[in-house]
Amino acid sequence: MSVQGETTRIALQHEMSQELGLPKDHRILGLWIFLAGECAFFASLIGSYLGLHNSVAHGPAGAQLFDLPLTTIATLILLTSSLTVVLGVAAMQRRDVRGMQVWLWLTALLGLFFLEFQGYEFYTFYHEGLTLQTSAFGSAFFTLTGFHGLHVAFGVFWILLLLFQSLKHGINEDRTTKVFVMSLYWHFVDVVWVVIFTLVYLAGKVG
Amino acid sequence: MSHDTPLLPAAREQRSQRTLYVTIGVLSLVLTLAAVFLVEIGLKAAIVLPILIALAVIQVLMQAFLFMHLRGSRHVYTYFFVAGLMLAVLIGTCLMVLIQSWA
Question: Which of A32, A90, A191 has the CB atom closest to B80's CB atom?
Answer without folding.
Answer: A32
